[in-house]
Amino acid sequence: MTVLVTGAFGLVGSATVRQLAADGRKVVASDLDIPANREAAAKLPSGVEVRYADLTDPAAVDNLISNVAPEAVIHLAAVIPPLIYARRELARKVNVDATGHLLAAAAKQATPPRFVQASSIAVYGARNPHRITDLLTSDTPPNPSDLYGAHKLASERLVRAAELDWVILRLGGVMTVEVAGLMNFDNMYFEGLLPTDNRLSTVDVRDVARAFAAATTAPVLGETLLIGGDDSHRLLQGDVGSAVAAAMGLVGGLPVGLKGNPNSDTDWFATDWMDTTRSQEALGFQHHSWPDLLIETAERTGWKRPLLRLAAPLAHAILQRRAPYYRAEGPYADPWGAIAAKWGDPSPEHL
Ligand SMILES: NC(=O)c1ccc[n+]([C@@H]2O[C@H](COP(=O)([O-])OP(=O)(O)OC[C@H]3O[C@@H](n4cnc5c(N)ncnc54)[C@H](O)[C@@H]3O)[C@@H](O)[C@H]2O)c1
Predict the structure, then answer these.
(1) Substitution site in 4, 31, 205 for ligand 1 pocket (most atoms within 8 Å of beta carbon)
(2) Within 13 Å, how many C-alpha atoms sit on residue 161's CB side?
């Protein structure tokens, strides 16, 4: 059984391809033909086939699907925050239109593949933790408050309407123990503008990969499943980055952001804690707790840890001056305003 993975060289894609290969599945990894992906392709597990395609091109998508004739498609390719806010047009083409091209090509196959769609808890929109206390479930009504949530919800609708078997996985905050690749200024600035008391369910990318691999065969057709870690992953946004930084040795290295406004139902980012009872029962993917993830991060940092520990005060001083709310006047975070000022209009598109 061939599994086609789109967005195969991204954070989730790389782990998913590795998981499928380790499970002995036949995998075709697809992504954009760019130098970084060519380099990554050279390091793939043996037996994994690579096919480059720009999914915004319907003819390329048709070719990809008819040549691979997959029994399952794991569709991960997307333009995600924060880049999505700077590239609205491109993002719609990738996040929504390309999903439509893939579904159309897949539904035309003599035996249409099972389609496993990557979605996000961003579909639920901003959730003020002072007023909303229930956990997210697949029955919680979606109510996107930004472009990303709107794109993800629109692509879910396309999947549900398609004439093939489907499963939708809504992911929480995906974490990796290979942090170095993700530590860039844009990502740190983005995390720094989110309300520190925003609730967030995180999940280890290797567990996300297990969930996607399992969703290609498990009896979960037509289900929408929430993919977060075990209860130890129910965290507050402000504690996530600082705990990872501390695990690497950068104790107190990150500046402290601002809390969310308890009196506003909109000035919150689109994350919350989720109930993963059903997804764990169906897919059995939770293998890495939050404390384990931190211990492994520390171990992987190895000899650099004591050096980073020494550098922490300097890192803090530099990053504080470049933090989103440096010298901010208000007492509360303004995540959407800060995103608009740095990247562009985050408001949802009506699709
Ligand atoms: N990372 C998270 O925390 C998170 C949370 C919720 C949902 N998700 C969803 O999971 C999926 C994977 O996310 P990720 O973190 O691995 O993202 P990523 O940005 O690391 O990977 C996305 C991949 O899509 C590819 N891509 C972009 N445009 C393309 C195009 N036109 N044609 C072909 N490929 C294209 C990129 O090259 C990249 O490799 C996405 O659908 C995302 O919305 C991620």
Answers:
(1) 31
(2) 9
Neighbours of 154 (CB within 10 A): 21
C-alpha–C-alpha distance, residues 120 and 175, integer Å = 14
Nearest CA among 202, 316, 206, 299 for reference residue 251: 316
**CA distance linking residue 3 with residue 166, whole number of Å:** 14
Question: How many A from CA of 79 to the centre of ligand 1?
Answer: 6
Q: What is the pLDDT of residues 117-168, one digit of tens each?
A: 999 999 999 999 999 999 999 999 999 999 999 999 999 999 999 999 999 9
Q: Which residues of the chain have pLDDT under 70?
A: none
| Nearest to 53, CA basis, from 39, 40, 63 | 63
pLDDT at 349: 84
pLDDT in the model for residue 333: 98
CA-nearest of 327, 316, 279, 55 to 167 is: 279
Sequence-distant (≥ 6) Cβ neighbours of residue 56 within 8 angstroms: 90, 93, 94, 97, 98, 101
Between CA 55 and CA 33 the distance in angstroms is: 11
The tokens for 92 are 């719609």
Q: For ligand 1, atom 11, which residue shows the shortest CA distance?
A: 76
**Can you give the pLDDT at residue 170?**
98
Tell which atom from ligand 1 comes closest to the C-alpha of 34: 37
- What residue ranges define each of the domains in the chain, with the CATH number in brackets? 2-175+202-231 (3.40.50.720)
Residues with CB under 6 A from ligand 1: 6-7, 9-13, 31-32, 54-56, 76-80, 94, 98, 118, 120, 171, 173-174
**Token pair of 143 as six digits:** 């109510």
